[in-house]
Amino acid sequence: MTPPLPDIQPENRPRTTRLAPSPTGDLHLGNVRSLLLGWAIARGQDWRVVLRHEDLDQERSEDGGCEAIESSLAWLGITWDGPALRQSDDLEPYRAAMIHLAEQRRIFASDLSRREIREAAGAPHGKGPVVFPPSLRPKDPSAFLFNDQEGNYRLIVEPGGEQVRDELQGDREFDPSTEVGDMIVWTRNGRPSYQLAVVVDDDRQNVTDVIRGDDLFSSAARQQRLRRDLGMAGSPRWWHLPMVYDQQDRRLSKRDGDAGILALREAGISAERVIGLVAAWAGLIPERRELPASAVPDLADGPAMRRLVDRESRMPCRFTEEDDRWLRNT
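Above: the chain's sequence. Below: its structure in token form.
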């Protein structure tokens, strides 16, 4: 097991967290809960909050999506410090990271399809994750050079556990080599993968605390590996929050347009009503009531967040028909 990377200590960097939505559709109530709680934890402790639009997925990113997100955040009362960063505006920091990885012989070009990887690895066909095994690494030395041409590049992922120290959920161990194997860090579209981009951006935005949904818990281990390969000092502190589900036990997603912020705004629902519902879900107030975002930082301290995690480990939060009726005041 690889021990967790040391925290980026506050004496080295001011405490900073980030809001990092993707402009692939309207923010839904699950997004709002994660964004609100992360923002409130930070504001309650006088941290900086930076905004990053993770817009590298050209196929899914919507025209005007970044502006719509900023409008929704401002309407909710969720603020940030300084100008927002759009990943697609400047790819050079990611190319520089790839050049560094190539110099360390940590990446290689590979255009094998998911089907070819499954067949070569003897894995069953299906929709599950495809693990890229070491046996498929190329033998040609030129494959380990980065030339930014069309094609995928993968990071060599060595076997072994990676310990992630989470502020809310305690220590967890993951082994990226068995979960994903050699993972894609540069795509055939000439853009970095999610994992590479967020590692580079967390470093260049001086992020010390990553607060996000726990669907990305295992990604923390992959990102720690990448930080180490890129020669970055330490690791952000991790805070992974439980997700919100619907009544069919499906995670809320952007396909649930009726739970989207723009639709709620157009229906005449107030921001205070949205914030009040989300705060009640988190156990910050005893029952649903209208509440401004400015009141939440005084409520969302570490102990309150740990109680949320403990409670929802037994009974996940669900957006119910009763919640919807209260929200719409019907």
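The first strand starts at residue 16 and ends at 19.
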